[in-house]
Amino acid sequence: MTEVEQLCDFVVIMSHGRVVAMGRPQELAERFKCRDLDEVFIYLARVA
Q1: 1-48: per-residue pLDDT in tens?
Q2: How many CB atoms lie under 10 A from the CB of residue 40?
Q3: Predicted local confidence at residue 21, as pLDDT
Q4: C-alpha to C-alpha distance for 37 and 7, rounded to whole angstroms
Q5: In Å, what is the CA distance from 45 to each residue of 7, 16, 26?
Q6: How far apart are CA 7 and CA 13, in angstroms?
């Protein structure tokens, strides 16, 4: 996910064919109270 944070302006995270989050990498980290996209992905994998 480090590469995604460095290269992408906008991210869409999907789970089971559904969009569960989308936005700028830093905005997603702030929204889910995480340090980075790795933590956002792990959090969403548990709750989505």
Answers
A1: 889 999 999 999 999 999 999 999 999 999 999 999 999 999 999 997
A2: 24
A3: 97
A4: 13
A5: 22, 10, 18
A6: 15
**DSSP per-residue letters across the chain:** -HHHHHH-S-EEEEETTEEEEEE-HHHHHHHTT-SSHHHHHHHHHHH-
* pLDDT score at 25: 96
Q: What is the pLDDT of residue 45?
A: 92
19-34 per-residue burial string, b: 16 or more CB within 10 A, e: under 16: eebeeebeebbeebeb
pLDDT score at 48:
77
| CA neighbours closer than 13 Å in the CB half-sphere of residue 26 | 3
